[in-house]
Design goal:
The protein has two domains: about 30 residues; about 45 residues. The protein is about 80% helix and about 0% strand. The protein contains four helices and no strands. The termini are far apart.
C-alpha cells in the first residue's frame, strides 16, 4: 500500500516537471511586444484600477506571468 502511494507521488512529480517544462517552452514561443502592452495598459488604467488592469492584461495575453504584467502596469502608470 505504501509502495503504491510512493509510486503515485513520484509519477505526479514527473508529470508536474514535464508540464512546467512545456509551459516554459510555450511561453518562449509567443512573442511579447512590450511597447504595445504598455499602451494597452495605459488605456486600461483610464477605466479601471491597477489590479483589474493586470488581470485584464493577463487574460488578453496568456504568455504574461503576474510579475511581467505588474511591471508593465507600473511602467504605464509612470508614463
Amino acid at each position: 500500500m505504501i509502495f503504491l502511494l510512493i509510486l503515485m507521488i513520484i509519477v505526479l512529480l514527473i508529470i508536474d516537471g514535464l508540464q512546467r517544462r512545456r509551459i516554459k517552452t510555450l511561453r518562449a514561443c509567443v512573442p511579447v511586444n512590450e511597447q504595445q502592452l504598455i499602451t494597452d495598459a495605459t488605456a486600461l488604467l483610464t477605466t479601471m484600477d491597477a489590479s483589474t488592469a493586470i488581470k485584464q492584461l493577463r487574460m488578453d495575453n496568456p504568455a504574461l506571468d503576474l510579475v511581467q504584467a505588474q511591471r508593465i502596469v507600473k511602467k504605464a502608470q509612470q508614463a
